[in-house]
Design goal:
The structure holds two protein chains of two kinds. Chain A is α/β, with parallel strands linked by helices. Chain A contains nine helices and twelve strands. Chain B has one domain. Chain B contains ten helices and two strands, in the order ααββαααααααα. In chain B, a hairpin with a 2-residue loop joins strand 1 and strand 2. In chain B, helix 2 packs antiparallel against helix 3, helix 5 packs across helix 6 and helix 9 crosses helix 10. The two termini of chain B are about 35 Å apart. Classes of the chains: A alpha/beta, B mainly alpha. At the A-B interface, helix 2 and helix 3 of A face helix 1, helix 3 and helix 4 of B.
């Protein structure tokens, strides 16, 4: 069964059509990244899936449940999902371990509190009041509260904003660990390297519509896009876009009789592809 | 697969957490718990007259302050702090967990009850030691006191949660809520003797629970002979009960139906 099934989803705020007919299927165990500029409708879609917002039209099933439904079934459903919101803060008068321990009591089968603290790298801060944590440490606490219930499906809304590079790497390692447990993850992010490192598939959304869903390697025809070969020829830098970089390089090797000065072969990065996609749809 | 904890057991856990959080906020502890005692010291020192045979102003004032404490620790505190929690995003995060709304409400009710008990003990202790406030000796008066406190706390908690949907932001909440409470305190005979107020003020106050709580507390702490000096020439405790229940139902209805977890 799929973890998330969405078809024909629409949502407007007054005259603003935030989501305009979105179809989306996310398989169980998949890590899916939703990319898009600010105001594209990412957060609206995710918040509808999380049960925070009402939709205007369309079908939505999350773990087989309609997030719009209320009552005891909704509690059972929330027991199976984890949510890391974009910005949360607290009065800060509790310690890290008190907060995580308290939240663990909400779920039927919570993960071990010490283990979760360790996996987000907050061991040394376990006894600190939340008010004394740095921004990045608070974010890690948010993630800890999202996974304490041992969710089958985890929503991560821009989880690593404000992380230093080292913290991002260790966060990525944590996500890989969750993937190993079979957790389905829906991630929104601004960082394309993050999507590339983590996601099985990415969906690019702009102006309330999904433009393309693909693997990071194949998005926007990236895998078949021409490679750019550049090298130094005397005083000038030459470059050539080609479908066959290997044969060009071997031709150049023969021409230079060995080492080609300042040789680079590049393919468009995910960011190049993404920016092109967003740019095109703006016209 | 274990079962999800029940709403009541989670509510008790939330109550413990609320108390822990509250006790670590020194300003609010001082303001909420000590403020009524400070007022008692001020008013008790300024007004030293007796207002009827065997009834000092302090005696009258303690009854009013206990009633008013119910409104401060419940309605006022919750209608100010819940919008703050909403602004922080703390409520939205809770909404995303299997914790039901009822557990959150139970937790708040526990916090209100505990701070109310502390406040009552401090008011009665200070009143008895420094201002000669007499404690009732009749068991029936203590029974009245118990149901008034329980029903008053519940009513005040429910109305505070319900009113938390009114302030647009946490920062503005105090400016919306505090004037309402202060006006009601003056109109309901907390700081001033009720029967000396203009009739229109008395009639306006009679629409709201504070006037009835104050009158009920006077029935506990003032001699029965004083009942004849009330507007209705009696304590009207039956009427007080009904009016508090009606407001409780209104508060619970709006809390359950209209509670806002998110800013927008």
């Amino acid at each position: 069964m799929n973890a998330i099934e969405v078809s024909g989803l629409t949502k407007s705020y007054g005259d603003v059509h935030a989501v305009r007919g979105v179809d989306l299927t996310i398989a169980t165990g998949e890590i899916f990244a939703l990319l898009g500029p600010n105001g594209a409708g990412k957060t609206t879609i995710v918040e509808i899936l999380e049960g925070f917002r009402m939709r205007d039209a369309g079908q939505v099933r999350v773990l087989g449940f309609d997030p719009h439904d209320e009552g005891n079934a909704a509690r059972q459903w929330r027991n199976r999902i984890g949510i890391v919101l974009q910005s949360t803060s607290d009065s800060g008068d509790l310690t890290v371990i008190e907060t995580i321990e308290h939240f663990s009591g909400y779920y039927s089968n919570p993960r071990n509190v010490e283990e979760v603290i360790n996996s987000v790298g907050l061991d040394e801060k376990a006894g600190s009041l939340i008010r004394n944590l740095s921004g990045g440490q608070r974010r890690r606490l948010d993630v800890a509260l999202g996974i304490i219930g041992n969710p089958e499906l985890l929503f991560l809304d821009e989880p690593t904003t404000g992380f230093d590079p080292e913290a991002r790497r260790s966060f990525w390692a944590l996500i890989e660990k969750l993937r190993g447990n079979g957790t389905t993850i829906l991630l929104t992010t601004h960082y394309l390297d993050e999507a590339e490192a983590l996601a099985d598939r990415v969906g690019v959304i702009n102006d309330g519509k999904i433009i393309e869903v693909s693997t990071p390697a194949e998005l926007g025809g990236r895998s078949t896009a021409q490679a750019l070969v550049s090298w130094r020829d005397g005083a000038e830098i030459k470059s050539l876009a080609t479908d066959n970089p290997t044969s060009l390089v071997s031709k150049l090797t023969a021409q230079f009789n060995g080492e080609i000065p300042e040789l680079t072969v590049t393919r468009p990065s995910l960011e190049d592809i993404y920016l092109t996609m967003i740019g095109i749809t703006h016209e | 697969m274990n079962k999800i904890p029940s709403a009541i057991s989670l509510g008790i856990r939330r109550g413990g957490l609320e108390i822990k959080q509250f006790s670590r906020q020194r300003e609010s502890v001082v303001f909420t718990l000590l403020f009524p005692v400070i007022l008692l010291v001020i008013f008790g020192s300024v007004f030293t007259d007796t207002i009827a045979p065997n009834v000092t102003f302090s005696q009258y004032f303690v009854a009013g302050m206990i009633a008013s404490g119910l409104v401060n620790t419940g309605f006022q505190a919750l209608a100010i702090t819940i919008p703050l929690e909403r602004d922080f995003g703390a409520l939205k995060r809770l909404r995303g967990t299997p914790m039901p709304a009822s557990s959150y409400f139970i937790g708040k009710a526990i916090l209100v009850s505990v701070s109310m008990v502390i406040q009552i003990l401090m008011l009665l202790g200070f009143g008895a030691i420094f201002f000669g406030v007499d404690m009732p000796t009749d068991i029936n008066k203590w029974i009245t006191f118990t149901w008034l406190t329980l029903l008053g706390s519940a009513c005040s908690t429910a109305l505070g949660i319900a009113f938390s949907i009114v302030p647009k932001s946490g920062r503005g909440a105090s400016a919306v809520v505090s004037p309402i409470v202060i006006v009601l305190q003056f109109f309901s005979g907390v700081f001033l003797i009720f029967t000396q107020l203009p009739t229109w003020m008395q009639q306006f106050a009679a629409l709201f629970p504070l006037k009835w709580l104050t009158q009920g507390m006077r029935s506990v702490f003032l001699p029965d002979s004083f009942a004849t000096q009330e507007v209705a020439k009696s304590w009207e405790n039956g009427k007080t009960f009904v009016i508090l229940v009606v407001w409780l139902v209104i508060g619970v209805f709006f809390s359950v139906r209209k509670f806002k977890w998110d800013r927008d």
